Amino acid sequence: MGLKHKKYIYVKRADGGFVKVRVLKSRQEDESKYVVIGPKVIRPPLTAVIVNEEGLPESVKKELYNL
Predict the structure, then answer these.
(1) CB atoms inside a 10 Å sphere around CB 9
(2) Dihedral (C-alpha) 44, 2, 36, 18: value to the nearest 10 degrees?
(3) In angstroms, how far apart are the furthest CA atoms of the chain?
(4) Cβ(13)–Cβ(3) below 8 Å
(5) Which residue from 24, 48, 51, 63 has the fewest beta carbons nearer than 10 Å?
(6) pLDDT in tens, 13-47
(7) Are 13 and 53 in contact (CB under 8 A)?
(8) pTM of the prediction?
(9) Are 67 and 36 in contact (CB under 8 A)?
(10) How many angstroms separate the CA atoms of 12 and 26, rounded?
């Protein structure tokens, strides 16, 4: 699955891994805006937008580590 039109971002976890997250722009609420998609990867694609986990809500941070 590609990174189309900035719908997907990669979130950098504290352990050095990255997780693919879908960003729903139609939703205004912070917690339901992010949907965790993929497994933990070591190297994200070169064209990926990378965000630190500190910028996400607490409920989304917990989902990042449940993979």
Answers:
(1) 19
(2) 0
(3) 31
(4) no
(5) 24
(6) 999 999 999 988 876 676 788 999 988 999 999 98
(7) yes
(8) 0.84
(9) yes
(10) 24
